[in-house]
Amino acid sequence: REQHISTFTDADADPDDLNAIHVIKSDHIPLRGDRDYPPGVLMVLEDISELSRERRRSERMMRQLIDTLVSVVDRRDPYSANHSTRTAEVAREIAEEMGLTEVETHTVDIAGSLMNLGKIFVPPEVLTKTGNLTDEERELLASTYLVTADLLKDVTFEGPVVKTVLHMGEHWDGTGRFHISGDRIIPTAQVLAVANAFVGMASARAWRPAMEFRKVIDILMQDTGSKFDHRPVSALMNFLENRGGIEKWAHFRDPPTSDKPEL
Predict the structure, then answer these.
(1) pTM of the predicted model, to two decimals?
(2) What is the pLDDT of residues 45-63, one digit of tens each?
(3) Which of 92, 93, 128, 127 is nearest to 113 (CA)?
(4) What is the rounded CA–CA span in Å between residue 210 and residue 208?
(5) DSSP for 196-234?
(6) Which is nearest to 229 in space by CA: 196, 195, 190?
(7) Could you tell me which residues are beta bridge partners of residue 208?
């Protein structure tokens, strides 16, 4: 028995018009033959367009909500503006390069977009501080992803978004916050950790300019086997060097247009 999903769009329809999308599910059931009838296939068709439209509407609303939440964080710290969006973009490319599933790729996208939500509880003067951070300030910033996970724990996602955010602070060798190691760290978190580190180093910050991509890759390679798994690091390197990633993400290194946060 085989099942197929076919999607059709009305000719000349607006790409954003969900009513123009039609989805047909077809089940193909083999039929045994006998002496009176040859073997055949029974095909059962079902129009699931409305179900598909509702799902797309829900996904669109979720994305709009995520974008709104991300903009709240970005406005408080110009040096971290676009960090979540860029991390989500890099994580998607790494996930696709690694051949992760569609759900896993969607998970790193959502988790990357929302991971810094906990920064809304960090004072702006800490986010934009140009001098050395105190130990308390460093811990406050380092633990914001835990606040994010706590804020999202009761939200239903298609994939393991909350667990991805929780595991992103773990190290491959088990020296992370919760001492989870190796493949006990879910793949989506392994991808997100590499993407987050890459964007953080390749972007300008209040206390330093952006690093060169080659230097960032060298650092990630040095941390392979300790902080990071080699698979997402290798996937990122391949995308940068062979799929135009260096040119595509060159703008990551541009400094922000303003050095004052919008409160």
Answers:
(1) 0.78
(2) 998 888 888 878 887 888 8
(3) 92
(4) 7
(5) HHHHHHHS-BTTBPPPPHHHHHHHHHHTBTTTB-HHHHH
(6) 190
(7) 205
Q: Could you tell me which of 195, 198, 173, 196 has the C-alpha nearest to residue 185?
A: 173
The DSSP secondary structure of 120-159, one letter per residue, reads GGS-HHHHT--SPPPHHHHHHHHTHHHHHHHHHTTS--SS
Residues with Cβ within 8 Å of 128's Cβ and at least 6 positions away in sequence, in order, are 77, 78, 79, 206, 259, 260, 261
Q: Which of 237, 241, 243 has its CA nearest to residue 217?
A: 237
Q: Can you spell out the DSSP letters for 224-258?
A: BTTTB-HHHHHHHHHHHHHSSHHHHTGGGGSPPS-
- Whole-number Å distance between alpha carbons of 181 and 174: 4
The pLDDT averaged over each successive group of 10 residues in the chain (263 residues) is 86 80 90 85 89 82 82 76 92 97 96 92 84 88 93 92 97 96 97 96 81 95 97 97 95 71 41
Taking alpha carbons only, the member of 187, 157, 154, 158 closest to residue 172 is 187
- Measured distance CA(132)–CA(141) in Å, rounded: 13
What does the DSSP 8-state code read for residue 15?
Answer: T
Alpha-carbon torsion (220, 234, 111, 173), positive or negative: negative
Give the whole-angstrom CA distance, residue 63 versus residue 56. 10
- For the stretch 208-255, pLDDT in tens is 788 999 999 999 999 999 999 999 999 999 999 999 999 999 999 887
Q: What is d(CA 242, CA 237) in angstroms, rounded to the nearest whole number?
A: 8
The strand order across the sheet containing 21-31 reads 2-9, 21-31, 40-47
Residue 16 pLDDT:
77
Q: How far apart are CA 35 and CA 177, in angstroms?
A: 69
